[in-house]
From TrEMBL:
The keyword Acyltransferase applies. Belongs to the acetyltransferase family. RimJ subfamily. PROSITE patterns: GNAT. Keywords: Acyltransferase, Transferase. The keyword GTP-binding does not apply. Residues 14-177 form the N-acetyltransferase domain. GO terms for molecular function: protein-N-terminal-alanine acetyltransferase activity. One of its GO terms (cellular component) is cytoplasm. This is GNAT family N-acetyltransferase. It comes from Streptomyces tsukubensis. The lineage of its organism: Bacteria, Bacillati, Actinomycetota, Actinomycetes, Kitasatosporales.
């Protein structure tokens, strides 16, 4: 865990903190170890150079934010969540991307972590709507969206270029007024203290 980055918000088992350049070694090791889990849905950076470019976009571009989901007891990175295409003004919307590392799968850590990010996005970031675009065959990602109260809004053929081809995606969304938004925000018990 990058020492200078304290948790923004904590839940019972995980905290979220901003992605930092210093996370390169741990993040890329987790991505390499999780390659079979991610394929064919995700392709997170597996080397330092690719991570540096990835982190730069999340850190330096105003329409993006990147968070790491870390276990509270030891600070180990369990997964990552990006808030992309942030639009302010009347829209106040963003798209979420996320992935777990293999050591964290099946433990509920990403459900808790994504709930913390949703709560943070609706409060601190001032967003009104969050979207998740997921390939129809990615059952674990769809299940995570459902657990957090996202509703399926539609289907977009040839939506994103992934792994060498245009892929169909289901569109899931949550607004700050929906019951799931409240439940996601209460997973944390509130902002981290201290």
């Amino acid at each position: 865990m990058a020492e200078e980055n304290a948790f923004l918000v904590e839940g019972p088992r995980v905290g979220i903190r901003p992605c930092a350049y210093e996370d390169a070694e741990e993040f890329t090791a987790g991505a390499r170890q999780s390659k079979d889990l991610h394929h064919p849905w995700l392709f997170p950076p597996t080397d330092i150079r690719a991570f540096t470019a990835y982190a730069a976009r999340l850190i330096e571009e105003a329409d993006k934010a990147g968070f790491l989901v870390c276990t509270r007891d030891d600070g180990v990175i369990a997964g990552y969540i990006s808030v992309n295409n942030i639009v302010e003004g009347a829209f106040r919307c963003a798209a979420l991307g996320y992935g777990a590392f293999s050591h964290a799968v099946g433990r509920g850590l990403m459900t808790e972590g994504l709930g913390l990010v949703v709560g943070h996005a609706f409060t601190t970031m001032g967003l009104h709507r969050l979207e998740i675009n997921v390939q129809p065959g990615n059952a674990p990602s769809i299940a995570l969206a459902r657990r957090l109260g996202f509703r399926k809004e539609g289907f977009s053929p040839d939506f994103l270029f992934i792994n060498g081809a245009w892929r169909d995606h289901e569109r899931w969304a949550l607004t700050s007024e929906m019951p799931g938004a409240t439940a996601a925000g209460t997973l944390s018990g509130g902002p981290a203290s201290g």
